[in-house]
Amino acid sequence: MTPFELLEPASLGEAITLLDPDDAAVRPIAGGTALMLMMKAGVFRPSRLVSLRKLAAAQSRIAIAPDGTLSIGAMAPLARVERSAEVARCAPVISRTMLRLSNIRVRNVATVGGCLAHGDPHMDLPPVLIALGAYVSVAGSQGERKIAVESLFAGYFETVLEKNELISELHIPAQGKSCAAYMKVTTGSAEDWPALGVAVSLTRDGAAIRSARVVVSAATEKAMRLGAAEQALAGAEIGERTFGRAGEAAAAEVECISDVRGSAPYKRELVRVFVARALHQALDGTGATH
């Protein structure tokens, strides 16, 4: 690796002032699990890294607001999210998903904010958060703004964050009586990067589906909702036929990419099958499988 400057600000405001919006070689670093690999491979050569390590104590809180909103500080390690009683209470699908998100060594170091800011479409957490209607608080030189997680990703390893903006907190609205599930398909071990990730969240009204969110990732350039599948579910009677129609609608809508984990046609077939399976998992209460 080439030499670089390492700075360790003591506050979020100070960290923002050390970021240069005009220099792509200046980056923040939280857990560093992805960034360090990119540096070792020579894909990224920083001139300055702004370490967020000293912000961990102030920016890793996990709490439930009076309205039921779950807030998670951006510097919270994924392992802490995995073990959090608050997360298990408000969004159990996240706790279940974490069990096979990479491995415990990575989860001990990687942070919530870094996971989202990295913009890797293969990550397991973003599609789940989109299905839950989550949003982030973002701090920058112009103040704070809130961005829905589904609007955060602009493309392959791209987000809408400015170069001098930092995610400060993740917010997950109260889920009420909705049910959710996440399924991933890997071509290697269970905790490997997925060839496809599918997250769903459903609200039922008796024997019918009142509303639904269907999200895919890994097979696409970014985690994204599938509107056609959601429309096929809204107001429909719960059952295998409805799940099958949603899977067909999802496969017809999705634009898959080919990579080392499979061809686009292969992934489109996975979408068709696993959207239906994820809907079934959500409604039978098992929540997250691989």
Class computed from helices, strands and strand pairing: alpha+beta
Strand content: 25-35%
Distance between the termini: 36 Å
Basic shape? globular
Main sheet: strand order: 4-5-10-6-7
CATH class of the largest domain: Alpha Beta
Largest sheet: 5 strands, antiparallel
Q: Let me know the average pLDDT.
A: 94
What is the tally of beta strands?
A: 15
Indicate the low-confidence ranges by residue numbers: none
Amount of helix:
25-40%
Task: Explain what this protein looks like in three dimensions.
The protein has 290 residues and is α+β, with helices and mostly antiparallel strands. The protein folds into 3 domains: 5-51, Uridine Diphospho-n-acetylenolpyruvylglucosamine Reductase, domain 2 (2-Layer Sandwich); 62-172, 2-Layer Sandwich (Uridine Diphospho-n-acetylenolpyruvylglucosamine Reductase, domain 3), CATH 3.30.465; 179-289, CO dehydrogenase flavoprotein, C-terminal domain (Enolase-like, domain 1, 2-Layer Sandwich), CATH 3.30.390.50. Helices cover 34% and strands 27% of the residues. The strands form 4 sheets. The chain has a 5-stranded antiparallel sheet with strand order 4-5-10-6-7. Strands 14-13-12-11-15 form a 5-stranded mixed sheet, sandwiched between helices. A 3-stranded parallel sheet has the order 1-3-2, with no helix packed on it. Strand 11 and strand 12 (194-205) form a beta hairpin. The longest helix is centred in the last third of the chain and has 21 residues, at 264-284. The protein is globular. The two termini are 36 Å apart. The model has no long low-confidence stretch (mean pLDDT 94).
